[in-house]
């Protein structure tokens, strides 16, 4: 049983045993020298060189050509076992799969997007648009996972005004602005996106406009119809949020979930994918939140790998009590402020979902568009505070462990 309070969720939950002190994203530079130029990396290098003589490359701006050159330098240095400079890059991990799924005509778009996504937060570059936008179709959820802010009554009760579904008109306006300016759109944030009754229309409206459309879902509502909806549209990554390989632990963590239903839905998704969409390039990921030593990666892989391309755990950040966590001494700037922005169902724009009740937000799509918000004085003031080791002036940044 999960204990919650009107104010927050600070009561001890036995199942949450992990107590992270800092959440770091991206490469650890010390490890880069250990990367060797595998045949996969060497193929990427050759593909870039080959495509550089084509029209797509020749029509790039000087700024974008410079980004491509940072990959070339990166691959060259890795081949010599040298460390990369801060502004040099190679592809790694899931990017290798994504790159091999990318059409020749989109290769430079992909590289430029990954560069911005990975390095702008590190180099503290603010472009016209964020590298990624997360759009929340709904804030409601049918689960009450023990580690999630959905257990906070001051958030989940309708009377408090945080619950709702995005109007299709607002969704389309947002997509219209982002098309051609942003490559990565994630449909999800605080709620379960498949609860939106127009979810299929949303996907259809996005078709052909972005390189990296991702959906995060708990897989509980994945009917056959919805599976076809996902697989027949232009979705690059489907993430199923699943944290355990056995019924008992799964249902204790994902309160409201039923293990057999989730497993059955994921199996059905895989079956329909292989039977009806054999040429689909969609990447399917099972992604759990690591909160507990009972969650074993080898068991996760044994059970879920037949139905997914990747099985992974993400590090836990205590979202369950964002506003009640102790103030910490972290001074490093949070990379989210240079990587992503969140558009919530009601048009409110927020820098992250750790701040799930929008204490940080001064922005609304009714007043400004995303580019204006991303480049606004008050957004830059927030970045400045982080850069000047003053994130402790911001609630909840002062108690958040993201860097
Ligand atoms: S609360 Fe602040 S530090 Fe934490 S993720 Fe959000 S912006 Fe970053």
Walk me through the structure.
The protein is α/β, with parallel strands linked by helices and 403 residues long. Helix content is 37%, strand content 10%. The protein has 16 helices and nine strands. A nine-stranded mixed β-sheet has the order 6-5-4-3-2-1-7-8-9. Helix 10 links the parallel strand 3 and strand 4. The longest helix has 18 residues. The chain is globular. 38% of the residues are buried. The N terminus is likely disordered. The structure holds iron/sulfur cluster. Iron/sulfur cluster binds next to helix 14.
Name the descriptors.
403 residues, alpha/beta, nine-stranded mixed sheet, 16 helices, 9 strands, 10% strand, globular, disordered N terminus, binds iron/sulfur cluster
Sheet having the most strands? 9 strands, mixed
What ligands can be seen in this structure? iron/sulfur cluster
Give the overall average pLDDT.
92
Q: Strand-residue fraction?
A: 5-15%
Number of helices: 16
Number of strands: 9
List the helices and strands and how they pair.
Elements: H1 29-32, H2 39-51, H3 55-58, H4 62-79, H5 94-101, H6 107-123, E1 132-135, H7 153-156, H8 168-178, E2 184-187, H9 199-206, E3 212-217, H10 224-232, E4 237-241, H11 247-253, H12 259-276, E5 283-290, H13 297-304, E6 310-315, H14 336-339, E7 340-343, E8 348-350, E9 363-364, H15 370-374, H16 377-387
The structure holds iron/sulfur cluster.
Iron/sulfur cluster binds at residues 334, 336-337, 351-352, 354-355, 396-397, 400, 402.
